[in-house]
């Protein structure tokens, strides 16, 4: 493909590395509505050197090392990103750490600090807590002084989240998370749930919210293996539960949806704010992205398989090398 040319308010980046996200799996399976029709170049974030900037851009310049949030297209050697999705990073920041900041840390920061405002002392349940967004949420919740309950699918991941400070680690393959929360949390309820599993996990979680509780839905990993059969899709959608606004009012609970693509498109200044915050916090060592795998480009299929098969933790990044 020809090299892209940046338009006004766009930045051209020569890519050193790009990050993988679970949404890439959904896109490859044809289950991601926002993804352009396949074949296409996917990928949400890139780490590299600015080659050219469009008119009117002052916060980055040619030669700067940056991380950029891309609206697809990051699995490439040259990428154009909207200026608000680009931020300068230290020369010494490892590719994996930098790549984690764009999508996973921005999503976590937006969810925890913008969409809801985590309060000190709150009890917070994080599903897929060992994953890219999950570990970011865990760090933000611990920093806010919350009690963290993490669910994961293996004993290795139990060890990882415990080492990183989770107060309660639940292996959902061994123990139903609803029973665990009922036993472990005050009055069997939590204040906040971050759910990217979707389906019945959301329905069950809604029953665990205390008064003032917030459920943040930001993914549907449980639907990644589902077929595109319309009846099966309706059945899967119904697993989320059916709600009436009066229930939310009576119980004083909220259900909040997060989609960073929509924020990037329609609220780019908020994306830039989140990106700057997480980059600053990472540069100061306050946030410490966990890099679960660094692969050379030849091993991209292996990296994707590991992500799809739940074998990864933290951030997975692929380097172009050469
Ligand atoms: N809304 C947004 O803007 C936004 C932005 C970024 C990411 N996301 C979503 O956030 C979630 C996490 O993304 P990520 O990139 O950080 O991925 P990740 O958490 O590193 O990987 C996905 C993890 O989800 C867990 N999982 C639970 N049910 C699963 C299933 N049926 N199939 C596969 N995995 C399952 C697995 O962990 P266990 O083995 O511990 O179960 C797996 O490792 C994804 O659902 C993604 O689509 C949303």
Offer a quick outline of the entry.
The protein is α/β, with parallel strands linked by helices and 322 residues long. It folds into 2 domains: 10-103 and 267-319, Alpha-Beta Complex (Quinone Oxidoreductase, Chain A, domain 1); 119-258, NAD(P)-binding Rossmann-like Domain (Rossmann fold).
Layout: helices, strands, pairs:
Blueprint: E1 10-20, H1 22-28, E2 45-53, E3 65-69, E4 78-82, E5 86-88, H2 95-115, E6 123-126, H3 132-143, E7 147-152, H4 155-163, E8 168-171, H5 177-184, E9 190-195, H6 200-206, E10 209-217, H7 230-238, H8 245-251, E11 254-257, H9 260-266, H10 268-283, E12 291-296, H11 300-308, E13 315-319
Parallel strand pairs: 6-7, 6-9, 7-8, 9-10, 10-11, 12-13
Antiparallel strand pairs: 1-2, 1-4, 1-13, 2-3, 3-5
Bound molecules: NADP nicotinamide-adenine-dinucleotide phosphate.
NADP nicotinamide-adenine-dinucleotide phosphate (NAP) is lined by residues 21-23, 103-104, 107, 128, 130-134, 152-154, 157, 196-197, 218-219, 221-222, 224, 258-260, 310, 312.
